[in-house]
Each structure stands twice: as structure tokens, then as C-alpha cells.
Design brief:
Number of helices: 8
GO molecular function: acyltransferase activity, transferring groups other than amino-acyl groups; serine-type carboxypeptidase activity
GO biological process, one term: secondary metabolic process
Strand order of the largest sheet: 1-2
Family: Belongs to the peptidase S10 family.
Number of strands: 2
Order of helices and strands: EHHHHHHHEH
InterPro entries: AB_hydrolase_fold, Peptidase_S10
Strand content: 5-15%
Largest sheet: 2 strands, parallel
Distance between the termini: 40 Å
Length: 195
């Protein structure tokens, strides 16, 4: 809109679910894995002590053998044969979604009531895919917290949410980068439950 491009988009805000936001995101996976019982308290404490909060291999000294060994053990413990499990029972699509294999959403999003709730004009979307088969992009931002601050200052509202069982982007990291924005708390933390 600021560039004067048309059509003008009457954007009020944005919603992000489990967003990849800043470079240190992976450092929160260790805490999450321990909280979910995927690694022992002993391994967690050893990782915290030996790696000192940095769990990305490229930033760990090659001389820090104990940290690297702990990370190797961590990787073995959290590795699941998810692709094999998913492929054995689900073959409805040739598209491989790297995070979630969800076929129901394709039908759900095309429902008239859903389109109406999302204010999607008729005829604008004939087919919706959860994952693009060939998506070419170049990552230009590794830390988007400044972008969130910019949009907030412009008056755009945001709803950021995280699932409690998503290890790809743990809810701990989402809470951490939101805290980094230094906004005052308007509404206290609360859990969202589906019954």
C-alpha cells in the first residue's frame, strides 16, 4: 500500500501459527523435548551445562566434545520414523508436506461456509493446496522480529499462536520472541483448549 500499488489491500492484521521467527528458534527444542519426556532430565541438564544454551552445531566449538556428544544422543532420541509411518497408511496425495500430512483441510477450506467466514470472494480460488509442489524462494530475513515491530507500529493487529505439541517451532520460542518485543501485557497468558 505504501508503494502506491493497486489494488489497495485493506489489511487490518495478520495471523501466524507456529511461525519461524528468529535464528535461535532451535535452541528451544531441547527444553521442549525434556518437557515432553523425549529426553531424560539428566541429558537435559547435561546439555544445558555443556552447551550453555547454544544447541546449533555451527555455533558450538569443535573443542566442546561433551556438548557435541550430548547433541548426538539428543538427535538419536528424538528421531522418529514419521515418514515411514505416514506413508504406510496414507497415499491419497503425491504432494509431500514436510510438516503435516493433512488431507481433510483441502476439503474443509473449499466449503462454502468456510469461504464465507474467511471472506473469500467466489471464483477467486478454484483449487487450494496446503503445500506447493515447487515453491521457489530466497530467504532474505533470518530475524523477523523487527518486521513485527514495524507492522505493530503501523497499527496492524496480530494473533500469534503455537500448538503445545509442535517440536518444529516450540511454543517456548514463540513466547521468547514475543517477550523480546518488549510490549506491555494487555491480556494475561491463557491456555486455549479444544474439547
Amino acid at each position: 500500500n505504501e508503494a502506491g500499488n493497486v489494488p489497495y489491500i485493506n489489511l487490518k492484521g495478520y495471523i501466524l501459527g507456529n511461525p519461524l521467527t528468529f535464528p535461535e528458534e532451535n535452541n528451544y527444542k531441547i527444553r521442549f523435548a525434556n518437557g515432553m519426556g523425549l529426553i531424560s532430565d539428566e541429558l537435559y541438564k547435561s546439555l544445558v551445562h555443556t552447551c550453555q544454551g547454544e544447541y546449533r552445531y555451527e555455533y558450538i566449538s569443535e573443542n566442546n566434545i561433551e556438548c557435541r556428544q550430548n547433541l548426538e544422543l539428543y538427535e538419536k532420541l528424538i528421531k522418529l520414523p514419521t515418514q515411514k509411518l505416514l506413508n504406510e497408511h496414507h497415499s491419497a496425495s503425491s504432494v509431500y508436506c514436510p510438516i503435516y500430512k493433512s488431507y481433510v483441510v483441502n476439503y474443509w477450506v473449499l466449503e462454502a461456509s468456510v469461504r464465507e467466514a474467511l471472506h473469500t470472494r467466489k471464483g477467486t480460488i478454484s483449487e487450494w493446496k496446503r503445500c506447493a509442489e515447487n515453491l521457489n524462494f530466497t530467504r532474505t530475513f533470518y530475524d523477523v522480529r523487527p518486521k513485527h515491530q514495524y507492522l505493530s507500529k503501523k497499527g496492524y493487529r496480530s494473533l500469534i499462536y503455537s500448538g503445545d505439541h509442535d517440536m518444529k517451532i516450540p511454543h517456548h520460542s514463540t513466547q521468547a520472541w514475543i517477550r523480546d518485543l518488549n510490549y506491555s501485557v494487555v491480556d494475561q497468558w491463557r491456555s486455549w483448549k479444544v474439547h
